[in-house]
Amino acid sequence: MGASSIGGRLCIGREDVCVALDGDAPADPCEQARYVGREQRNPRARRRWLLAGVAVAALLIAQPALANPILVSTEADLRAAIETARTTPGTEIVLTAGITLSADLPALQGTNTTIRSESGQQFAIDGAGAYRGLFVYAGSARVQDLTIQNAVAQGGNGGSGSALGGGGGAGLGGALFVNAGATVTVANVNLDANAARGGNGGGFGDITGVGQSGGGGGMGGHGGDGGGGHFGGGGGLGMDANGGTLGVLPGAGIVTGAASGGSGAGGAQPGAANGGGGGGSANGGGGGVGGSNASGGQGAPGGFGGGGGARATLGHGGFGGGGGSAGYGGFGGGGGGGGVVGADGGFGGGHGFGGGGGGAGMGERSSLSRAAA
């Protein structure tokens, strides 16, 4: 399985694993392409990148059982246990039954968190063909004796508008996503029938840019639609983290306690909590963790996992987010539609033209951004 560094991020294989690393790849897209070619032709460099990606797996050594594990048998139990682990170092979460999801789980942010099946079992976390598996945003975690199946990382669709459409968000890491700075160790984990799918670009009514435009999709949340004097906010991180639009507030994200999406112009519609969608208004706010507030007559950039807010210009997507109207897509996110020529998508994401470009789907089994499982 080959490895290549793209835009400072490492992708191993075409469908199985997408690893986003802080690396030394050049920023210029043309130079990136040449850089990738060199890495693919250089077995020694390829091995070096692979070792960087799997270094944490070398730590698979016997560890003593932690005291007072939290036993979980339902989705509600698992959600509560993940939230407990966020503030309680060394939490051990033990599945006593298989669990099928009805929404994205909260992101893992704890220190030395363990998630496993009870002794002698191999229970499954099942995404029901609609929701992602485990999303490790920060901290350290150990995952063992589990199956993650039917999990889907679905990028949010770009918002439609009476003028231009927003770019689609990226689908990254169906079974497992590991953010930069987080570490994960896996042992005896089966990954089965998982998928990563980019979001669709938003539709448009008038490619000259007359009217209101849609926000960019995030890593799950749809961009807000434009119309009725409002521009859509960018989608955020999580399936319910939709960007705001006329009469509809943005949805909250999955990273508990993280910075909210950005507010629409003048604070008319605030961004949603936990890396949620950006607010819609005369200018759309950026979605995702730390999405920017809209100001100055242009759409706001998206934060981590967030799409850009809409306006006639700008509104670039953050990591994994699609651009708002005429805004560039972040890594894996599609570019927003532009009046004459649509903006560029990020790596793997489509270019916008009128309607926004679609986002990329990467890492059906896992997507990691520094330390790989």
Mean pLDDT: 76
- Tell me, what's the shape? elongated
H/E series: EEEHHEHEEEEEEEEEEEEE
Oligomeric state as shown: single chain
3D architecture notes:
The chain is of the alpha/beta class and 373 residues long. Among the domains are: 57 residues, no CATH class; 132 residues, no CATH class. A hairpin with a 4-residue loop joins strand 2 and strand 3. The longest helix has 13 residues. The N terminus and C terminus are likely disordered.
Set down the secondary structure blueprint.
Layout: E1 3-6, E2 9-12, E3 17-19, H1 29-41, H2 43-54, E4 70-72, H3 75-87, E5 92-95, E6 99-100, E7 113-117, E8 123-126, E9 134-136, E10 140-149, E11 152-154, E12 171-172, E13 176-178, E14 183-192, E15 195-197, E16 361-362, E17 366-368
Parallel strand pairs: 3-17, 4-5, 5-7, 6-8, 7-10, 8-10, 9-13, 10-14, 11-15, 12-16, 13-17
Antiparallel strand pairs: 1-2, 2-3
Give the gist of this structure.
The chain is an alpha/beta fold and 373 residues long. The chain has three helices and 17 strands. Helix 3 links the parallel strand 4 and strand 5 (92-95).
Main features:
373 residues, alpha/beta, 7-stranded parallel β-sheet, 6-stranded mixed β-sheet, 3 helices, 17 strands, 10% helix, elongated, disordered N terminus, disordered C terminus
